[in-house]
Amino acid sequence: MLRRLVSALLTLLVVAVGLAALVTRPATGSAPARADFVVMVGVAGLRWDDVDPQTTPTLWEMAGRGAIGSLSVRSARRPTCPVDGWLTLGAGNYAAWDGAPVPASCRRPDVTVERPDRIGAKLPDQETVVLHNQEKQPWGAVPGALAESVRCTVAVGPGAAVAAARPFGRVDRYAPTLPEDPRRLLGYCRLSIVDLGTVAGEDPAVRAAAARRADAALARVLAARPARSLVLVAGISDTDRTSRLHVAVADGPGWDGGWLTSPTTGREGYLQLVDLAPTALAALGRPMPERLFLGRAATAVPGRPADLATAIAQPFDADREARAQKHVADWFFVLLAGAQVLLAVAVLPLLRRARRHAGPGGPPPVPATVVAVVELLLIAAALAVPAALVADAVPWWRGTHAGWYFAGVTAVLLVTATAAVRFAPGHGRTLGPMGAVAGLAALVVGADVLTGARLQLNGVTGYSALQGGRYAGVGTVGLGVFVAGALLSAGWLAQRVRRTWRPAVVVLVGVLAVVIVGSPYLGADPVGAVALTAGVSVAAAMSSGGWLTIARVTWATLAVLAVTVGFAVVDLRRPVEERGALGRFLGAIGDGTSGLTVHRSGAANLDALVGSPLTVLAVTGAVLVWFALLQPWGGLKRLFGIYPAMRAAMAGIAVAVLIAGVLGGAALNAAGAAVALTVPMAALAALRVLDHATDRTQPPGAEQPAAPAADPSTSPASSGPSASSASPVSPASSGPSGSAASSASSGPSGSSAAGAPAGGSAGGRGAVRTGTVPAPTGTVPA
User: Fold this and answer.
1) How many Å apart are CA 604 and CA 43, to the nearest integer?
2) Distance of alpha carbon 172 from alpha carbon 169, whole angstroms
3) Is residue 215 a contact partner of residue 57, using CB atoms and an 8 Å limit?
4) Element spanning 232, H or E
5) Residue 232 to residue 40: CA distance in whole angstroms
6) 253 or 564: whose pLDDT is higher?
7) How big, in percent rounded to 5, are the helix, strand and coil portions of the chain?
8) Mean pLDDT over residues 144-166, rounded?
9) DSSP class of residue 397?
10) Please, are residues 302 and 68 in contact by the beta-carbon 8 Å criterion?
11) What's 283-325 look like in SS3?
12) More confidently predicted of 689 and 440
């Protein structure tokens, strides 16, 4: 009854703290004042390095008095060419003009604009484009949704016509070029969209000339803007296959200074292209087409430096970091996957020869130097991702050879961390390196999340603002590393306490991890929190020994369901624009659009499964565990028998990362990140356990009998063959007796030698000890 009561209380604790983590995040910015008119100005390809007082004086002055930010121009096709950017602007959702692949440079949009009268226009291809986005794209975008949300729209230029066209192709008011005095045109409708051309190429002179022309046209727009109007200037798209962050400026009532942000990013100074349409409707006081828009209205938050040059330097630096991250991250994970595969192959022969034999028939032991080197390599492999995360604290992307700078910084951090683990107290114990590595990894990711996840944004092991998937909180790689580090640390701590208290230790550590992952203040990943809750529940149920019984499965399932329901209820009570992934999915079920969500998740899982090097890591780790470590000669079963809390932790890791990957659309990416930490540590611990598989411990209070003093004159050694019968040699060191000792230690109770106090350091190779009574299973300290 007491054990059942403890399980119930632990379940309630997980539920209560998980719900406490879901306190609604306060608004990061106040809603701006309403505007009578909104003018949306788009310049394809415009970046912050194109803006300066000499080349773009009008935009510079506008940015000084308005709110600024970095614009992610993600659309349904990558990279986003100008026609896709304009279409996404008008849809308020990720849209694409067609399904053609993007060449090296974006071609001029082949948009036909017909003028049946001298007032409006018509796009004859619009209906085909709408069908393409409805049937071939997973986002459910409806081009023209923005125009359908207002009574009248003005479009200037072909790009603006694409954004302002209604789903059947009609543009209410159209002008092919901006008039010299656009005052009357901009006052005709409450919403105007203006195309000021394109800034393309990498030649500074060419870009400066294009930016200067756009700035001159912008000056005419600002001079003719209606009273009480909001003007939004955006670098609407990329111009080639190189994705970049672009300019976003808002100038109008309530937008005086500050950083632009939106609920879709949750990050000050960042917003998405799909946020511009909701921002315009919110400023005009028009209702949102919630089922059609994926973006949310932007706001302005304080905190921007007073000096405009200093303020603009921040989004410019973010663009440079995001561009460098994209290239460096590709080869980093490829090298990491290759290194871990080679290390797994190198560990296999060591596992087969690690177990010492008492008799003369076994293979010779592996030299201690080789074992020590392999152990250091395993530790370094497990710490590679945390070291790369910390490396982003150094501005390596500002150098000429950014990749080499990153490699140098990461190598220094990796050597330092490996040395810290090697010389940490308790390193000689079987679980010493595993506990140190797991704790260090969890500490690195947790500290980054607690301080705003600044290392993960545009970080090599984090997420990129160019991808448009996540801008704040814990990313997929960070989640995998954090789950593995937290649960391994929980298992290591639980193994050091009495059996009855182990579930409590696992739950306490797990609850803290769930709060960090799931809280909207911190990790902002409710799906990851639900997955981690499942892993914690499984680990707590198995931590005291034994496998999953019906009662344990029931309690674990109840805990997961309770936390999931709690997340759903609290998330659904939030405003629509503040809901997380779980709340949006349940809302989609309510309005009948959940099929699109499932389709998007399936497509994201397929892309992540096929195109990520982390898939190779996950598969390689699973193969090494199943075909090597879990074999009778692999040592992992013996490790699990001696340390049941570690078996529980690894089972919980597998459950958590698989659930997080499937539900989060990341496939095996989270599992690959967890494998990069867990499998090297499991191999190291298995090597140490096998090294002591034939050790024997003495029963408590037993003493080794002293050998009788030998008389040189009557020593049996001088009598030839009779010497061996009188020699006081331990039975464990003789041939037949050694075999018996080996087989005795291979059963469930024979696991006592790996790390028992009488056995000394688990990593050493001292003399074989004698005795017949092994320590009870599960009571050996780590």
Assistant:
1) 30
2) 10
3) yes
4) strand 229-234
5) 5
6) 253
7) 55, 10, 40
8) 94
9) G
10) no
11) HHCCCCCCCCCCCCCCEEECCCCCCHHHHHHHHHHHHHHHHHH
12) 440
DSSP code for 436: H
CATH number of 37-304: 3.40.720.10
| Per-residue model confidence (pLDDT) at position 579 | 59
Would you say 162 and 109 are in contact if contact means Cβ atoms under 8 Å apart?
yes
Give the integer Cα–Cα distance in Å for 347 and 349.
6
pLDDT in tens, 311-331: 999 999 999 999 899 889 988
Query: For 427-470, how does the pLDDT look when each residue is reduced to its tens digit (9 = 90+)?
Result: 888 899 999 999 999 999 999 999 989 999 999 999 989 888 88
The token pair at 640 is 């699990």
Angle, to 10 degrees, between the axis of helix 550-572 and the axis of helix 526-542? 160
Instruction: Return the SS3 of 271.
Output: strand
CA distances from 479 to 471, 638, 648, 659 (A): 14, 29, 19, 12
Mean predicted confidence (pLDDT) in 679-697: 80
Classify residue 532 by burial, with Cβ atoms within 10 Å: 0-12, 13-18, 19+. Answer: buried
pLDDT for residue 85: 95
Lookup: tokens for 81: 């060419």
pTM check: above 0.90: no
Residue extents of the structural domains in the chain: 37-304, 323-356+363-544+602-691
Q: Report the sign of the C-alpha dihedral through residues 437, 438, 442, 443, in that order.
A: negative
CA–chain centroid gap for 299, Å, is 26
| H/E element, 560 | helix 550-572
State the SS3 of 156-171.
Answer: ECHHHHHHHCCCCCEE
- Sign of torsion over alpha carbons 369, 372, 373, 374: positive
